[in-house]
Amino acid sequence: MTSHVDPETLALFAEGELHDKEREQEVRAWLAESEEARAQLAALREVTQILASTPVPPMPDGLVERIDEALRAEARKHPVPSGAPVVPLTPSDENAKVRPLRRSHGPARWTPFLVAAAAAVFVLGAGTAVLSSLFTSSDTTDSAVVFEQTSPQAALPYRLAVVSSGTDYTSDALADQGAELLGRSALSGSDGAAESEPLTPKADEAVPATVTSCVDALNEVYGAAPILVDLASYEGSPAWIMLFPAADNGHEIRVVQPDCGEKDDPASAVVTSAVLSNSGE
Amino acid sequence: MNTVTDAVQEIPDKELLFRHNQGDEHAFNELVRRHRARLWAVAIRVLGDQEEAADALQDAFLSAFRGAHRFRGEAMVSTWLHRIVINACHDRLRRRMVRPAVPTEDHTLDLLSNEHGGSVPDPTGRSDTSLDVHAALEYLPVEQRLALVLVDMLGYRVEDAAKILDVAPGTVKSRCARGRARLLPYLVHLRNPGDSPDVPSPKGGGRRS
Question: pLDDT tens, B81-98?
Fold first, then answer.
């Protein structure tokens, strides 16, 4: 039998990637009876050996320095990497206590500041009536999250910064509230600490898994993960406020329904969004 | 293995990336120092051209530097960096191949492709093995070339290559198999005539997991 088993079939066979029992039998039979077949199989193995023994040329002279220099230049252009989840840890006792996701009484104490600051905003879309009805049934079981002081050991190298500012975001003031959030989280690199309390990110264990899955889902959709998530409310209903990096070191704020991780189309959970004009300075 | 940060003296890659994101100026340099040799090997193998590989490597490090905050922690930093380098190389290959000179599906070997591929293996005589291997790689579709570079040339485990290329391990295996079959006619002249097929090689067999 000089039947044709081409090199590709043989190579796939050798990798166990033929996925065809009959074909595999044929190849086996052919290998058993044909010297040529065995030689070809050996030749294929030699391809691997030839490839493996080809030396890697050394890095060209000066490349190491060139790369270092390029990175230094880049660092000068952007002293603080945009989107860095640099959130100061405040040692205050308040942060070590239970932090309600949604304050049960009264507006957060910084709300007056925000309202005062609210001016022209870019709100894209949003029907708030529909919104409220969507949110009212949202469960409140996880409305109180114990903040545990993170031990250095427990801190993951990268983690999503998740906070609960207690802010009730509004359609009118969304962009300003987003800018305020950014400032308080110190992501912008500006020190807004003087005028408002810095936010402390939750310990990893305190971040609900639903938040993580939602963030992952949105990351797929937008090709970027949020740098900060505020478990807060929007027009009085629970909502996750996410800050995404945008062009020119700006940010986009997106208001997301808490169930977004379970949706087929996670983007549909995004209720509204606004662009923060280049924050910081 | 994602979160294991054993009490090794050396700071884990992920911690370095985190520090970089926090504004530590030296953290990223350390990452570069750790990975550049490996990533250089990938770039030069994929692209074959020193200048291009150098540019691709620099581009890749810059985009990793800028995009570090997008690293999500579920992959290893090394895998993530490899992906960025592969992408940088891929872009260059695509640009190089604006003309559909390299076959992607069928077996048609475009023998005219030496126009863009530099030297063609010389079946008659001896020549530098590296050059020949590189020239032969030019005949492969990009996907097959990437798989073979990682697995056969650089000895990555199939599973690791699959993570880097973001495909199933089986896909890596079949791409390697097809690539080997396609390379066969271009590399026959490099076989040791009269030798047993089991030519020992320093890195050979590294592909087996």
Answer: 999 999 999 989 888 766
What share of residues in chain B are helix, strand, coil (percent, to 5)?
Answer: 60, 0, 40
Range of the domain at B21: 6-96
Tally of domains within chain B:
2
Instruction: Return the H-helix or E-strand segment holding B84.
Output: helix B77-96
B128: tokens are: 């530098």
Q: What angle do CA A30, A35, A39 make, to 5 degrees?
A: 100
Q: Which residue of B has its CA nearest to A39?
A: B197
pLDDT of residue B196: 43
Whether B120 maps to a domain, the answer reads yes
Question: Of the residues B64, B96, B128, which one is the last residue of a structural domain?
Answer: B96
Q: What distance in Å separates the CA atoms of residue A111 and residue A116, rounded to the nearest whole number?
A: 8
ipTM higher than threshold 0.90? no
Q: Nearest CB to A59: which of B22, B29, B40? A: B40
Which residue in chain A is spatially nearest to B145 when comparing CA positions? Answer: A51
For A:231-250, CB contacts with B below 8 A are 245
Lowest mean pLDDT among A18-22, A65-69, B186-190: B186-190
pLDDT in tens, A119-146: 334 333 333 333 333 333 333 333 333 3
- Residue A247: exposed, middle, or buried by beta-carbon count in 10 A (0-12, 13-18, 19+)? exposed
Measured CA to CA, the distance from residue A160 to residue A185 in angstroms comes to 12
**CA Rg value for chain B:** 19
Same domain, B133 and B92: no
pLDDT at B97: 67
